[in-house]
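Journal club side-thread
Mid-discussion, someone asked how the predicted structure for our own chain would compare to the paper's figures. Pasting it here so we can look after the session.
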Amino acid sequence: MRLIFFTDGSDDGFAAARLVAALIDPAAVSYIAVVAVTWPQRPSPIWDKANEAHLALDDLHRAMAVIADQCVKRLRAELIRHTDEIEEIVTVGDPAQATLDILHNVRADIGFIAVTSGPHRDHVAAWVVEVTKRAHCAIVVMHGIHEDARSI
């Protein structure tokens, strides 16, 4: 199987991806890619982190590059036991279209989308719905429990 994991940069989405990764049978996997879609700027967890890093780095493009790299490497670390090779993809564009393009280009069997259940969930959900409507393969949307929900 060819698996693609997308991240919105959220910690709760990553927690959900970690749980799903533990369920994957390494014998069934032939390819894994981990993906972060960066520009354009939009309300999302990855952009919250980039804007925070911007204060320290004084360069928004550099800040986003650092954060996106951290996000894909974090996912990669959870998935490396499933295959010898994991492709890291950092791309730009409309999140829905970029996701659909990658799913198509790598001939994915399943796309896993790890997203937040926190403050940006409505913004993120808009592009995720578009992907689920138009994808050529199975899509699994997962999210963890955001810290805001834990305090209720």
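Post-session note: Residues 2-146 form a domain with the Rossmann fold fold (CATH 3.40.50.620).
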